[in-house]
Every structure is written in structure tokens, then in C-alpha cells.
Design a protein that fits this description.
Blueprint lengths: L3 H14 L5 E6 L12 H8 L8 E3 L2 E5 L5 E6 L4 E6 L9 E7 L5 E6 L5 E9 L5 E3 L16 H9 L5 H5 L10 H11 L12 H20 L41 E5 L2 E5 L13
Antiparallel strand pairs: 1-6, 2-3, 3-4, 4-8, 5-7, 6-7, 8-9, 10-11
Helix pairs in contact: 1-6, 3-6, 5-6
Length: 290
């Protein structure tokens, strides 16, 4: 699933190619793509047609484009395999094309392509936010991410240490800190030399801040390289892959030597997925939290 760096790459593409343009026609070609919109795909398409899309915004893994008047926004979540592509109007339809927006300037279309249909697009009301002005109602509960200038480090450390859970499970909780998924959790924990099952309430405040710093660093580095692409499912709006995967130290590196100590990276089951760590650098805690 795309995480913060990948979603931010897409947001920047939308900002460049879509913001300020007026929708002439919207088509929802698969009902699951609009399942988050209560009235369904046809109603969504009718409501978007004729509206102008404003500057793209993001919180965690959610993207949105406010409509002119700023009463509502077109919200997108990429899910496991969703792609927002800016394509010439005369280019062939993608195999898994789900939503198409055509524009009054007859220029490039915005297309939502999703092989697994876990992602989707919806129209959502904008509600007041603490400092950002207005955000979609479905996004208001999502925490800020570590790259957000308004992210509160002190509050994060306090809330993290108040929990009684495993460290990686906490990092994946989007109500605590957003944008971190399996890839960047493993990479951050490897850099901090922490095991994924380290109890959060036993983590010293200084170590929690250190981990947060590593999370910022690894996601900023990934953003600079266009994100992480393991296959063709994640691309930017121009269909180009990121290449941070060549810089990964732990995630997906099972049986390869740890870049720090040379011990083979191990793969372990975690929440119906996998977690990767170095058994020497990231030792199992005495009282691990599952």
C-alpha cells in the first residue's frame, strides 16, 4: 500500500496538472470505486461536473481536491493498488480504469486506475480543522504526519508512551501518527535499533524522539527518490515508478546481510503481514508485546 512519500508524490503531481481546472464530465466506471460515496457513482459524477478543482491537499495516506466554493472536496484513497494518472484524452483506457475526469480545457484527463479496487473516490463535506482551515469530514480523525510542520513531537511522545502495545503496532495507528505503513515502520525501527515488539510504555522519551527523527529522515529520503516501487502498482501521475526500494535496509530484505552488521535480515509474521529486522541490531525485548 502506498505510504506517505508515495502519496505526497501523487499530491504534488495533482497540484501541478489538475489544480485550477474545471471538470466538464465525470464518469464512474466501476461501482466499488465510489463505494465511499453514499449516493453512489452516478450521483458523485453529477455533483463533480462543472466544478473547479482547487489545490491538492493530503493528510497521511488521504488526498483531496477542494471544489470551488470550498464546501466539499473530492477525496481519494489509493488503497493497495490505486493510481491517479494524468493522461492525454486520446490515450487508450487502462485495463483497470475506474473513474475518469475530463476537463473543460480539453487537456489531459485525470484517471483513477485500481486493479484490486480497494481504493476509492468520494465527495465529502469540508469541516473546520484545528489549524489547517477545513478538511474532509472522513479525514478529520487522522493524525498529522511527521513531515507536517504542525506535527507536535511532544504530544506524540506522550501519547506513544501512554499506550501498552508493541512499537510497530503503534506506528501503524493512523490516529496516533499518519503516513507510516509497513515499509517505513520497518526502516525506521531498523535505523533506531528497536524491535517491532518493544513495549511502548517502556520506551524512554529520548528513544521515542530518536525513533520519530528516523521516521522523518527515511520518509524524506524516500520522497526525494519518488517513493518506493516494488512493482507497477505504485506510480506517480505520469506513470513513473519511484526507486527508493534500492535503498531499503530491512523491509523486503530477508536473508540478505544487514547493511550495519552483516547478520542476515529475518522475516517474521506480524498482523497478517510480515515484519523485517536484524536479529543482532534489533534484539527481542524481555517482555515483547505481540
Amino acid at each position: 500500500m502506498p505510504e506517505l512519500p508515495e502519496v505526497e508524490v501523487v499530491r504534488r503531481g495533482l497540484e501541478r496538472w489538475v489544480a485550477g481546472r474545471t471538470v466538464s464530465r465525470a464518469e464512474v466506471l466501476h461501482p466499488r470505486a465510489a463505494r465511499r460515496h453514499p449516493e453512489g457513482g452516478e450521483a458523485l459524477a453529477a455533483l463533480v461536473a462543472g466544478r473547479t478543482l482547487e489545490a491538492a491537499s493530503r493528510r497521511g495516506k488521504y488526498l483531496w481536491l477542494p471544489l470551488d466554493g470550498r464546501d466539499a472536496a473530492l477525496v481519494a484513497h489509493l488503497g493497495m493498488s490505486g493510481q491517479l494518472l494524468v493522461q492525454p484524452a486520446d490515450s487508450p483506457d487502462e485495463r483497470h480504469l475506474r473513474v475518469r475526469l475530463s476537463f473543460a480545457d480539453a487537456g489531459r484527463e485525470l484517471r483513477f486506475v485500481d486493479q484490486r479496487t480497494f481504493g476509492g473516490i468520494a465527495l465529502d463535506d469540508l469541516v473546520p480543522d484545528d489549524a489547517e482551515g477545513r478538511v474532509p469530514a472522513t479525514v478529520a480523525h487522522i493524525a498529522r504526519d511527521p513531515l507536517d510542520p504542525l506535527f507536535d513531537d511532544t504530544a506524540f511522545v506522550r501519547r506513544l508512551r501512554s499506550r501498552s502495545t508493541g512499537l510497530k503496532r503503534a506506528l501503524l495507528d493512523q490516529t496516533l501518527v499518519s503516513g507510516i505503513g509497513n515499509i517505513y515502520a520497518d526502516e525506521s525501527l531498523w535505523r533506531a535499533r528497536l524491535h517491532w515488539a518493544q513495549p511502548t510504555h517502556e520506551l524512554a522519551p529520548a528513544r521515542a524522539r530518536e525513533l520519530l527523527g528516523h521516521a522523518r529522515d527515511v520518509m524524506a529520503e524516500a520522497l526525494g527518490q519518488g517513493g518506493t516501487s516494488f512493482d507497477a502498482l505504485y506510480v506517480n501521475v505520469n506513470g513513473e515508478s519511484g526507486y527508493f526500494d534500492v535503498s531499503l535496509a530491512a523491509y523486503g530484505q530477508a536473508d540478505r546481510p544487514c547493511p550495519r552488521c552483516g547478520r542476515p535480515i529475518v522475516r517474521e509474521p506480524f498482523m497478517n503481514r510480515s515484519s523485517f529486522r536484524c536479529p543482532r541490531c534489533q534484539r527481542t525485548p524481555r517482555r515483547p508485546r505481540p
